[in-house]
Amino acid sequence: MLRAFHWGILEKRSTIRLDPKEAHHLFRVLRAGDGEKVTILDGRGCYAEGHIVDRKTQEIAIDELHFAQGSRIILYPALLKSGAMDWLIREVTAIGVGEIIPLVTEHAAVKMSKEAAAKKQLHWNNIAREACKQSGNPVLPAIGLPQKIEQIDFARPTFLAALRRPTTDLFRHGDAIKSGGINLIIGPEGDFSEREYGLFSEKNVHFIRLGSHVLRAETAALYLLSAVDYLSQSTDAGT
């Protein structure tokens, strides 16, 4: 399936032209031709089914419009090493999150300046956009600059996948998960420090357990999102 992003307004029975980067990928890299069907994503939940009118002029006709509701989950993953962080952002975008805010933690293997963080933010946004095209997710998650725990006000139900501390079962929090407006926190490979656990306790964060095995941080993120997705659907179904 051919997919591309268009940052403008999508309207039925109209024609559009993509920005140069997206057009190059669609017409030069993927070699899309006249008449081929293509899905156009706007990153805000609207997506269109269309077809290529003319490869030379790069015109795409919009045939049908569809709308999807974005996720209300904010994911707070601790900063990981470059490859692991890229992989995490790619996969959680495909599954579906509304926002990703990396955490600066005491045990994280990665430290970066404000300038480096801004470059990384742009890099992560590019990865998320490609993940949306690959997966068909029409909602591009917002990716914030890394923040310290002290800077964040978790003003809604928040769940942390904890390696230590007394924990509760995620399944006990079905009502909060059903609301959809929740925060999920994933720690670094070296876990959070005792001071950081104390901060989370002060902020009324729920410590939850993920099975019986110790998971890599990026694996824990997928595990937790998958469990939340399952609980959201089963709760809606009344099971």
Write structural notes for this entry.
The C terminus is likely disordered. This protein has about 240 residues and is an alpha/beta fold. The protein is built from 6 helices and 14 strands. The chain has a 7-stranded parallel sheet with strand order 9-7-6-13-11-14-12. It is about 35% helix and about 25% strand. It has 2 domains: about 70 residues, Hypothetical PUA domain-like, domain 1 (Ribosomal Protein L25, Chain P), CATH 2.40.240; about 160 residues, Alpha/beta knot.
Kindly list the characteristics that best describe this protein.
239 residues, alpha/beta, Ribosomal Protein L25, Chain P, Alpha/beta knot, 2 domains, 5-stranded mixed beta sheet, 34% helix, 23% strand
In short:
This protein is α/β, with parallel strands linked by helices and 239 residues long.
